[in-house]
Design brief:
Order of helices and strands: HEEEHEEHHHHEEEEHHHH
CATH topology of the largest domain: Aminoglycoside 3'-phosphotransferase, Chain: A, domain 2
CATH class of the largest domain: Alpha Beta
CATH architecture of the largest domain: Alpha-Beta Complex
Structural class: alpha+beta
Distance between the termini: 58 Å
CATH superfamily of the largest domain: Aminoglycoside phosphotransferase (APH), C-terminal lobe
Oligomer: single chain
Number of domains: 2
Length: 312
């Protein structure tokens, strides 16, 4: 049975009727099949367990923040086992990684809404069961401590100039991140849904954990493409975080994610050749151009302003 037929069989069993036409949505970590009013996420039973983590958290998440979980379990066809989760389809489509096609006004409006929705997640008091799940260790690649970041950097096989630049960022990092707030930890614009300029849902809670709000603000800003400076301004205004603090914390997190991904890619060069090339390009930009400290365009004339002073 093909993957689409398997997803259709699962959807039919859950709905008690034929789900109608189904399309395949882009996803790095799962197969995602979308019908008019149901979404089926499928992964091999022996693959990574993050879907099980998401399923376990779903009943306890703040109301209205994500799609409703309809059913989950294991499905077997022709001896092949898959784990699945079926969600009610929420209106809207993903704005897309990098916010392609969005103008500045739309990007800022979406960013403001994201702060409000993520604020509800950050204020959530998880049940004892959910808190246990959020505390489970994950190799999430995010910033935890200065010491851990320095250790990650020391093992990298990258040019000496890039290593030196990474160490400068790491030395200026906080001693440790807080781990007392529920965070999504993967809230790039491919994991949101929006309809007519209004955010309708935040999806994919498989990386959710205890951290600090900065772990989420990083993703929202970093994935805003050319609108990143404007989105940073929105988050500064909405959260009252000083802009230099926000820039520095985001730069540390990007350095950590890049170092972690490069380590992963070097460990599996055949599987992750494309990932390695992408991350090396971004690392070179991070160190040589220091984009988190790049002057933002002047709102009045579009020219570059003074920007923030770069840490040394």
């Amino acid at each position: 049975m093909t993957d689409t037929l398997q997803a259709r069989a699962i959807a039919t069993a859950v709905l008690g009727r034929d789900p109608g036409p189904m399309t395949v949505a882009e996803s790095i970590s799962h197969q995602v099949h979308v019908a008019a009013d149901i979404v089926v996420k499928v992964i091999g039973a022996g693959d990574h367990p993050r879907l099980s983590r998401e399923i376990a958290l779903a009943p306890d998440l703040p109301a209205g923040i994500t799609a409703a979980l309809l059913d989950s379990g294991v499905h077997v066809v022709d001896g092949r086992q898959v784990r699945y989760a079926c969600y009610a389809r929420v209106p809207g489509a993903a704005p897309g990684m990098g916010l392609p096609g969005a103008d500045r006004k739309t990007a800022c409006a979406l960013a403001k809404q994201s702060v409000q929705r993520l604020g509800a997640l950050h204020a959530w008091s998880p049940s004892t069961r959910a808190a246990q799940i959020l505390r489970e260790p994950l190799d999430h690649g995010g910033f935890v401590t200065r010491e851990a970041l320095l250790a990650e950097i020391d093992g990298l096989q990258v040019p000496a100039a890039l290593l030196k630049g990474l160490r400068v960022i790491a030395v200026n990092a906080p001693e440790r991140a807080r781990v007392n707030v529920p965070v999504h930890a993967d809230c790039h614009w491919g994991n949101w849904l929006a309809s007519n300029g209004t955010l309708t849902a935040l999806l994919d809670f498989e990386w959710a954990r205890f951290g600090e709000p900065m772990d989420d603000w990083f993703f929202v800003i970093a994935d805003s493409g050319p609108h990143a400076p404007a989105v940073l301004d929105v988050i500064t205004a909405e959260t009252a975080i000083p802009p230099d603090v926000l820039r520095a914390e985001c730069e540390v997190r990007e350095a950590n994610y890049l170092a972690s991904d490069i380590r992963l890619a070097h460990a599996n060069p055949r599987t992750h050749a494309r990932l390695l090339a992408q991350r090396m390009t971004r690392l070179t930009e991070l160190i040589t151009e220091r984009p988190w400290w790049r002057p933002a365009p002047c709102r009045a004339c579009g020219s570059a302003g003074r920007g923030a002073a770069r840490p040394r």
